[in-house]
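Retry 2 of 3 after timeout on previous attempt. Resubmitting structure tokens to design endpoint.
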């Protein structure tokens, strides 16, 4: 019986490792000018953000950046780096008051640029400055398999 417990434990551990390897990793931070200087490093250097969770293993398809500037200037009003399944279409929009830049990508830590483009993704390698590429993300399938394998282990251990 102990061997069965070990079997379930090691299979669950193995699938957890595989699951995390299929997750995209994204920078997650934000800055708002109205909040003062706190979080300002998120604008140009998200890797220097001091927050513990500045890098998130994401179960969604895209890393993204949304940058807002005052129209006609390069003054950043806000920036947000996150992960999401349905990002805004890449590009630039201006409503007369603010200019919004949207960028999304599918490689680990690819949302590292200034919000207008990425530092790590070569724009000449494919589709131009802003790219949306469908991700290969099987994390939700592996999570379900893990659940199916872990559940009998807990039931067995608790009985």
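Retry 2 succeeded. Sequence:
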């Amino acid at each position: 019986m102990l061997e069965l417990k070990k079997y379930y434990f090691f299979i669950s551990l193995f699938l957890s490792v595989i699951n995390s390897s299929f997750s995209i990793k994204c920078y997650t931070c934000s800055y708002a000018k109205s909040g003062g200087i706190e979080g300002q490093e998120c604008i140009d250097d998200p890797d220097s953000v001091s927050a513990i969770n500045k890098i998130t293993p994401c179960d969604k398809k895209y890393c993204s950046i949304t940058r807002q500037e005052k129209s006609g200037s390069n003054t950043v009003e806000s920036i947000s780096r996150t992960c999401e399944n349905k990002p805004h279409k890449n590009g630039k929009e201006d409503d007369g008051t603010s200019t919004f830049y949207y960028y999304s990508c599918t490689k680990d830590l690819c949302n590292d640029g200034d919000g207008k483009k990425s530092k790590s993704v070569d724009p000449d390698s494919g589709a131009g400055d802003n790219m949306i590429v469908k991700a290969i993300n099987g994390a939700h399938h592996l999570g379900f398999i893990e659940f199916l394998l872990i559940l009998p282990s807990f039931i067995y251990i608790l009985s």
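Attempt log closed. Confidence is low (pLDDT under 50) at residues 122-142.
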